């Protein structure tokens, strides 16, 4: 049956990892509670077609979303659920973010058998992460650490660590919470590592002309979380950064005020530029903070990264 053929039936597309399925099921439950019949359909993405290739090498901003976007535009699915941190700042023409779900803890978690903090890691400890953002900020704080790349789902990464590939692995705390993963971990303070833009929130995307677009928003959207990630994504867009660029953000929403912190770091951790901005317009706050970071010198880092990729 073609997606959207029934106004009470929704085909929800997702990646096939355990975490992606848990995230999609959370949205499916909300839709079912609102009276919809929901079919969850697994669609394989670029990241899953290339499971052993480092994400920084793949270097596609839509590495987790492209095939789901294609399915939306083809009418094969009604809704796609993504980790918002994986969604490019410029979504494809014809697609909109219908909702941003209530954000879980956006901070990163340091997982180790001893549940060590970043300060308790031994000199020269090996820490695994696929994120340039995490790598850069960790090396800035602890230049003695050895950072190694790692791929795989949450369970696979923890298993690889326990098999001796690393002393610790860095993962999004929201993912651990959604999976009920009880591996010993400590939270990386934002003063040490700022999270990825949008981390901890989910995005529900649909075709811009989908008849249920507004209804999806009514059921799934969380206003304060949406305002927070709008500020972060505005900053990221102004910096021309993607998920493969070492840029971090942290937003607190109190009433009408949005308070945003941001960082741009060199991949070796030698340089970091940090700033803060606050205001009532999320996009304006994000643009203003991006301008501040650029005026500090962050553009030098971004130009070096762009030049390295073009060569």
List the helices and strands and how they pair.
Layout: E1 9-14, H1 18-33, E2 37-42, H2 46-49, H3 55-58, H4 66-73, E3 79-83, E4 95-100, E5 108-111, E6 126-128, H5 132-141, E7 146-148, H6 154-165, E8 168-172, H7 173-179, E9 185-187, E10 202-207, H8 213-220, H9 223-238, E11 247-254, E12 257-265, E13 272-279, H10 282-310
Helix pairs in contact: 9-10
Quick description:
With about 300 residues, the chain is of the alpha/beta class.
Structure characterization notes:
By secondary structure, the protein is of the alpha/beta class. The protein has 3 domains: 9-102 and 201-221, D-Maltodextrin-Binding Protein, domain 2, CATH 3.40.190; 108-187, D-Maltodextrin-Binding Protein, domain 2 (3-Layer(aba) Sandwich), CATH 3.40.190; 235-310, 2-Layer Sandwich (Double Stranded RNA Binding Domain). Helix content is 37%, strand content 23%. The protein has a 5-stranded mixed β-sheet with strand order 2-1-3-10-4, with helices on both faces. The protein has a 5-stranded mixed β-sheet with strand order 7-6-8-5-9, with helices on both faces. The protein has a 3-stranded antiparallel β-sheet with strand order 11-12-13. A hairpin with a 6-residue loop joins strand 12 and strand 13. The longest helix has 29 residues, at 282-310. The protein is globular and about 60 Å long. The chain starts with 8 loop residues before the first strand and ends with a helix. The model is unreliable at 47-60 (pLDDT under 50).
């Amino acid at each position: 049956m073609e997606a959207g053929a029934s106004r009470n039936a929704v085909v929800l597309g997702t990646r096939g990892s355990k975490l992606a399925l848990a995230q999609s099921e959370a949205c499916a439950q909300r839709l079912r509670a609102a009276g919809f019949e929901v079919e969850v359909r697994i669609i394989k993405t670029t990241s899953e077609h290339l499971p052993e290739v480092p994400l920084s090498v793949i270097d596609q901003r839509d590495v987790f979303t492209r095939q789901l976007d294609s399915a939306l535009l083809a009418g094969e699915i009604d809704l796609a659920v993504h980790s918002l941190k994986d969604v490019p700042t410029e979504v494809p023409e014809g697609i909109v973010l219908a909702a941003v779900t209530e954000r879980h803890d956006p901070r990163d978690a340091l997982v180790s058998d001893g549940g060590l903090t970043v300060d308790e890691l031994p000199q020269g400890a090996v820490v695994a992460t696929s994120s340039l953002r995490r790598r850069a900020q960790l090396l800035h704080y602890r230049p003695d650490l050895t950072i190694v790349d790692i791929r795989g789902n949450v369970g696979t990464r923890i298993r690889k660590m326990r098999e001796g590939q690393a002393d610790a692995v860095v993962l999004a705390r929201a993912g651990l919470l959604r999976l009920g993963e009880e591996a010993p971990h400590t939270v990386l303070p934002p003063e040490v590592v700022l999270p990825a833009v949008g981390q901890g929130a989910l995005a529900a995307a649909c075709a811009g002309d989908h008849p249920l677009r507004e209804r999806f928003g009514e059921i799934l959207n969380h206003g304060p979380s949406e305002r927070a990630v709008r500020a972060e994504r505005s900053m990221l867009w102004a910096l021309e950064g993607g998920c493969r660029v070492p840029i971090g953000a942290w937003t607190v929403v109190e009433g009408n005020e949005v308070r945003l912190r941001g960082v741009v770091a060199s991949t070796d951790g030698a340089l970091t530029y940090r700033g803060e901005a606050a205001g009532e317009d999320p996009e304006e706050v994000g643009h203003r903070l991006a301008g501040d970071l650029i005026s500090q010198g962050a553009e030098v880092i971004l130009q070096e990264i762009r030049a390295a990729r073009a060569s």
